[in-house]
What we know:
By secondary structure, the chain is α/β, with parallel strands linked by helices.
Amino acid sequence: MSDARQWSRSNHAVPGAGASGALTQVRRDTIVAIATAPGRAAISVVRLSGDAAERIARAIVRPWPPAPRTLARCRVHASSAPDAEQLDDALVAHFPSPHSYTGETVVEVHAHGGTAVSQAIAAAFLRAGARAAVAGEFSERAVLNGKLDLVRAEAIAELIDARTRAAHRQAMQGMSGVRTRAFEELRDAALSLEALVAFDIDFPEEDHGALARAQVEEAALGLLNRLTSLTGRDVLTAAARDGATVVLAGAPNAGKSSLLNALVGEARVIVSDEPGTTRDAVEVLLDGDVWPIRLVDTAGLRSDAGLVERLGMEVSERYLRRADVVLACGETVTDVEAIRRRLEQLTDAAVLPLLTKADLRAAAPTSGVIPVSAHSGEGLDALRDEIARAVAERLASSGGDLLVAGSARQQAALQQAHTEIAAFIREWREGVLPSPVVGTHLRAATVGLEQLIGVVGVDDVLARVFSTFCVGK
Length: 473
């Protein structure tokens, strides 16, 4: 951790309540960073944030924009000296505190793209008194100043990293506040459960003590069911990010590589009439309307393989064990049935039987078997539809709009709460341990959910969350 970020940890305090409440004390220095990716481009953005942002920017920006939150054409100079070198003719906007992304005064310079221009402007701001920002520090300040909650901030990183439409949808779900509200409801349910247990502890002589114990168990089971649903959805997050795994399997020369190339629309795999051409797995990510698909071409499966082919088959078997859908490829119906029987021992994935090379071999219609041809294009659209259907069924969401935990940190916090609530229910039913002891599981679950939404323990997670961000965001 940088000295600047370490300093920030020791100079603020967490408020008593409120998932998005501003921290009572944050650092006051002004930071600068280039907010756009390096390299040749039409525009580059240099961003300042902090109490002294306007004063620093006014030293080198002339004339100063006449109105806030409006881009104005200005000259940017290397220093405040009257004869200072002009660095660029740019567009500048300033956002007075607290009406900005970070909650502090923010200045943005939209300069011409390119490495030299943006670096020169950033250097001028540094000379004028700013400090270089560390990764994610702008978003971190937004959290510290109550402009963002922690879950929404993590969704920003998801949005930046999203490379599929499904990942983009999930990131927007986080940024919309849907996740935050759901996580806050879980935390409120845990607090209500603690209150019920506290009543049982503080007023054991009440006539309805037995009723209170039943109410506690019912409430705990309801919370556990909600946590169970959420903790089982990490597979959806992984599928949105990396794609559902669809493996092409079959004997050597069954047309797997040609089929992959046809589905992709370009030659990604070497195609040859010689059996055993594919020695290793080849992956291609295809973005779909609902779920992305990670197509995997694997080595042919056969019993008389040589040493090199056998190594390739071992790779194939590993992919098959974690596949979501398998395309069982064969030139004849007999071949398809043979590979399907072999797949029964290798995978629990959904299996789509394919009669490949349909343009070469006429075959009577067979129930459940899809005829396709990489050469003529026959059956490819039907196959794409079947893959999409099978993947949607496998992931249990045809729309891909289920609430998910967007980061490993969120998943771990939900799993912790789930484990603690399950332990509480088990010990509560046994009735051996006193209620204050059993209630420690509720406290641990509540603390985990509070850390999840950033009510407590913010210092412990900020560095981990924002270290993955881009500099300038």
